[in-house]
Amino acid sequence: MLYPTLLQSVEKALAAADAVQTDRQPLLNRLAVYMQQRLSAEQTINLVFICTHNSRRSHLAQAWAKALGDYFAIPKLSCFSGGTEATALHPNAVTALHTAGFAISSEYQTLNPVYRLHTGSSGQELLLYSKKFDAPENPSEAFAAIMVCSDADEACPFVPGTDLRLALPYEDPKIADGTPEVAAVYSQRSALIASELAFVFRQLRFN
Question: Quick check: 207 pLDDT over 70?
């Protein structure tokens, strides 16, 4: 069961899915079809969200995919993230996830800190930290690569081992870093990612 605040955030995202922009829907439908095919075949669904630095958008998407998967109790779903280079998960993204209701705590404080993320009282945790998309801990075959920033999309026109490569860019919330709008911008970007992934997940059928 999801934590109460996170459950409210997921339900809000599902309601907001009705307003997903029309031009984004074909992209999201492609991801839904891929996931449904894997689900119907009782195969593992591996989603790898990729941005340039694996510091903001890719982690937000990874966390929301995990939350939606837990909400719908989707079997054999694993959510990953990576970058074209490794930097560090940005504290503002951590704050946005905490605000949305995720339980997230620091495990190792280094230049590239490691965080533990939980969606509820049960279920597998995620370890969040910055890494390249082809790091050993990420799948190397049979996965969907979702490019959540345009720079990463341009830098990686080919992702080895993927079943599906999908360009689904979002504006980087770092534009608000150091401004009074930082919390609002990060929360808005997080909510947008959540609503578009909700548009995908609510299409899945188990029978």
Answer: no
